[in-house]
Amino acid sequence: MIKPKEKPCKGEDIAKGYGCGKMTKYRKYGLGKMCCLSSWYLESENGKIKLEKTRLKIEAPRKEFESYKKERKSRQNLPNLIKNTVISVHRYVRLRDKGKSCISCDTPYKDNFQAGHYFKAELYSSLKFDLDNIHGQCEQCNLRREGNESGYSLRLPKRIGQKAFDSIVLKAIQEKKTGFKWDKEELVKIRKRANKLFNELAKTKGNPWKG
């Protein structure tokens, strides 16, 4: 192994003009690592640029790993978050539409009415929790008639208004063109809003799941 030779601390290349002249074995850019190199990094323009590049190079793998962990955690929590949001939104819809006839066949209200989607939740994620797209529906229509879409399409514009109906149709068309991905924070907001709406409505309509 070749031992380093002592040379005077004198800046070379990008560190030219710096150095204390002391004899040193260990140098970088001609500057002694134990004397002038650190001050060159901190005080000179070229040194600061070099130091910043080194810092970024060191931090890049850590940031990449943290980003990966965050994304992975988000993906792992997403299914449970969607499931819990479904519970909250459907609970609110059933209370909101308590007393209303079935959106698809006009059957008078029953306690076993479900939250049925006009645009199917499994096909249109962007409308999965849209309150204009979800309404009280009898079990027969929701489970045995595949949502009874023809009846739903006739009564939905009358219930929510043509403008709101046109809006969810446009959302469905847009999703087919561009796709859709759920954002974790957005799901949290939707769930909180559904719970808030339920609690506010329960004060006037009463909670049907108590007692």
Walk me through what this model shows.
- The protein is mainly alpha-helical and 211 residues long.
- The chain folds into two domains: 7-52, no CATH class; 80-205, no CATH class.
- The chain is built from six helices and six strands.
- Strands 1-2 form a two-stranded antiparallel ribbon. The chain has a two-stranded antiparallel ribbon with strand order 3-4.
- A hairpin with a 2-residue loop joins strand 3 (27-28) and strand 4 (31-32).
- Helix 1 crosses helix 2 (45-96) and helix 4 crosses helix 5 (162-178).
- The protein is rod-shaped, with a radius of gyration of 33 Å.
Q: Care to count the β-strands?
A: 6
> From the helix content, strand content and strand pairing, which structural class follows?
mainly alpha
Number of domains: 2
Low-confidence stretches: none
Q: How helical, in percent, are the residues?
A: 40-55%
